[in-house]
Amino acid sequence: MVPGVERSRIGDQLWVFVLLLSARIGLAQDDFLAKDFNDHECGQRLAQREGLVKGGYPTRPGDWPWHVALYQRGVNSAGFEYACGGSIVHRYLVLTAAHCVTYAASRRKIPTEDLLLKLGRFNLSNEMEEHAEEFNVIESIVHTGFRPTTFENDIAILRVEVPMIFNDFIQPACLWKRDDGYVLPNVQDQSGTVVGWGLSEGNVHGSVLNEARMPVVDSLTCLASDRTFFGRLLNSKAFCAGFKNGTGVCNGDSGGGMYFQFQNRWYLKGVVSFSNTIDSTGICNLKEFIGFIDASQYIDWLYENTPNSGIDDPILGHPNIRLINQGNCGRNKQVYEYAEERKPVFNQYPWMVAIRHPFVDSTYVPCNGVLLNRNYILTTNCVDLQDEISVTLGDYDTGSTKDCAKVNGEEHCSSSSQTVSVGQLFRKDNLVLARLTIPAVIGRRDHIEAICLPVTPEQRNRLYNKYIMTGWKESGTDAQILQRAVLETIDQNTCRAEFQAAEYASEASKQLDDRTICARNLADPTRSPRCNDYQPGSAIQAIEKKSNRYLLYGLQTDIGYCSKPEQYIAISKYLQWILDNIRG
Ligand SMILES: *[C@@H]1O[C@H](CO)[C@@H](O)[C@H](O)[C@H]1NC(C)=O
Ligand SMILES: *[C@@H]1O[C@H](CO)[C@@H](O)[C@H](O)[C@H]1NC(C)=O
């Protein structure tokens, strides 16, 4: 079976391949929708053309920034495998074909954890692509009228948890609707463009993205070409396109869009849905027309099913929410694998930053912090805010300029760290938000990345028994190397009692409320039990299983040593303040 392609047997010797269609914009239901399905921020190629096209590949990186690759796990193989295309239409949504997210010949949905979206991709064989981003799917909405046997309403919406941040390589396509009175033309006999990784000749799915232009044909012509096949599948919400001469859409192109360009913008008209194949080998027959779902007829449906991404929630509805939790925040190479204690520390927590007064002792880290996005870090009240402050991003061993470490028995080295100074500072209680004077270089390599914050109500309210702590320590032989410990949470009452028994009663009663998380490092084998000398600003984080990302839950305010539990500022109680103070 060809990887990732679902087929249904429709009749003797007929196999069906599905494609996805674009949707048009309906009436804006509220500001959130109006803003996010924006005619003025969609469908444009922004990437600079890089160099010459070699070998006649029909597309270049950045040509189709709304086209994404959908991977499935456990359907045709145990691991994630390329399956279909899809189109970004909104910062939370991708449109694809329903048959790309359901099991073959059924309406049964593939679990969302077995779906993965790859954005900003051009060459799927190259895992190091500069603009690549991956998104987990947290919800798949299959059209309730989807009929797997006839491919009726073969359309589905995929929702991602953190918003996609648009750039030159990741953009939404425009929906087939304009609000300015410009009427999008009838496309019959017009040529649209279909893109996909399945288009290469010889029915091998290609590594680089290909495109094919093909005309839309009227339904009568299509029906006449093969009454048995199209008679069952064509309906008023589907259309045919193609040349019947070998140029067309093949295995693995399902779910991708057919796009038309008007006034310099690309509009999503169709979703690749079904095609007729010549024999039971599953090799597609490009001597036949291809069936598309007419996405322009599903815009109201798309609107109705657009998750109201928390517009009533003060955090999710905050206008600055788009400035945090961007792209690959909270991700690293090993996020999927083993218990935390068994993971390497090197390049594993690329959001950790070392904060110092410049020109003091460059190996000593008095203050830890985390990178929030390209422009901001979060830390605690451990730096003298009157003084000049410098932030080092992507460091591991503060004693060496080039960091290397053994990971799974192999020597790995990271690029040099980035040191920048801090501009504006904001402070609330013990929390400090600082704007960097030069943006962090995120996303190019493994060692500098932002962390995600717990933004949904579920993430904000979740309490963990254990947290992963990372930071540089105050002293000891390992103080210049980033460390990790797993901490156990201590409930508020126990924590308060311990503080009162110790000599810090007044401090404890002053600070202990739900803005503080108490935790203790019980299992640090390199220190005597209960001792902890991680510097202030050390981060406590948890991996959210649904999205496989690290979320920041707290920042250490003080050093507890052995006498009392450590206290951490509960970040979820300060989200509003953070969002109110950051700028783009
Ligand atoms: C795609 O990536 C692979 C692996 O890096 C490479 O061997 C191949 O040449 C690339 N193809 C193109 C067309 O760049
Ligand atoms: C099919 O026809 C179109 C339009 O005439 C042409 O551009 C394309 O190259 C043809 N494909 C093949 C494989 O002959």
Automatic annotation (TrEMBL):
Residues 1-28 form the signal peptide. Transmembrane segments: none annotated. The keyword Disulfide bond applies. GO terms for molecular function: serine-type endopeptidase activity. One of its GO terms (biological process) is proteolysis. The keyword Signal applies. InterPro entries: CLIP_Serine_Protease, Peptidase_S1_PA, Peptidase_S1_PA_chymotrypsin, Peptidase_S1A, Trypsin_dom, TRYPSIN_HIS. Keywords: Disulfide bond, Signal. It comes from the Eukaryota. PANTHER family: GH08193P-RELATED, PTHR24260. Belongs to the peptidase S1 family. CLIP subfamily. This is Peptidase S1 domain-containing protein. The lineage of its organism: Eukaryota, Metazoa, Ecdysozoa, Arthropoda, Hexapoda.
